[in-house]
Amino acid sequence: LMTKLPDTGISIFTHMSQLAVRHGAINLSQGFPDFDCSPRLVALVAQYMRQGYNQYAPMTGVAGLRERISAKVEATAGIYYHPETEITVTAGATQALFTAMATVIHPGDEVILFEPAYDAYAPSVRVFGGIPKPVALNAPDFAIDWEAVTHLMSPKTRLIIVNSPNNPTARVLSDTDYRRLVEILRDNDCYVLSDEVYEHMVYDGVQHRSAMHYAGLRERAFVVASFGKLYHTTGWKVGYCLAPAALMAEFRKIHQFNVFSVNTPVQHALAEFLNDPEEYLELGAFFQEKRDFMLEALSGTRFRALPCQGTYFLLADYTAISALPERLFCEALTEQRGVAMIPVSSFYSEETNQQLVRICFAKQRQTLEQAADRLALVS
Ligand code: PMP
Ligand code: GLN
After folding, report:
1. Per-residue pLDDT for 131 more than 90?
2. Reported ipTM
3. Which cofactor does it need (predicted)?
4. Which end of the chain is less crowded, N or C, counting CB atoms within 10 A of the terminal residue's CB?
């Protein structure tokens, strides 16, 4: 076959979720809430459907939604993106990432990314003929070796992908990290793809810094966000991309032939819902409470949790429990103990084993309690 990804199988999220269903396990693997979104938001979607908002939306997104996004970004991050020219509504963050890559990656271009990395990045890079150049970060602190990044840069480096707050490490990039990145990119013809879908999930007063806060990044960055994370609606697949006008114009040329436009009634509902900032400003406190519960619960088990600054994931070390490599451990835990998690090795391109699992705590208290009871029995 002359196809593009012959060696790629189903994602680890699909695999572990299927295994959880088959064994009736509590699913802390794939990242999604097991509680519902706001009924008010559902009612708004139904309302717009009944009112006849059921045909194609504008290619770039419903105007009112782009305006509300612009206002939200300005209110929370203090940066203005023009709704007409610098914001496009996408079918989830996934499509924004894919289209941004399509916009800048030519065959043979190199793309720097940091591992552990979200599973979609490297395969998407390869679809466009790009060459992923991973920089491996390691537990416990997953610090970026910026010297190593400097050495990887070449005239072929077209894109660098950053994700903060980070899935799966639960770490947040520091001001120093961003400054180093600005320095490295200063004399390079390289774009930035900043995946910020967990922007509002930061804890203990840790601050989320966006690529847009650094002029040297903003001028070359696609910033990607997701309403799936913002409003507990991962099944709706609506997100957006921000970029300077010249870059966004190129992004849209591809977007129009990829999805053309995104679900109309959902966009109208989101636009209206965005008028109420409390819904997303409470997100940090909401998930910090769940994180704290999970950390406390894990302290009564033989799992050892790593620090969690952001996202709705945390990492835990199981060295005290098993010598199995991560994937086998996760499969055995699902089958025998009824709790599903994600092996961290699946976020690396090279084989690794740090005896680490990723736990999703975007779950109801009752689910977390049940999982904790089961994990306490694992010795
Ligand atoms: N990037 C990261 C880091 C994610 O964790 C996710 C969702 N798991 C996505 C992108 C995709 O977001 P969406 O569901 O909006 O496509
Ligand atoms: N982003 C989710 C996670 O990290 C999974 C999304 C998916 O299954 N593609 O668990």
Report:
1. yes
2. 0.97
3. pyridoxal 5'-phosphate
4. N
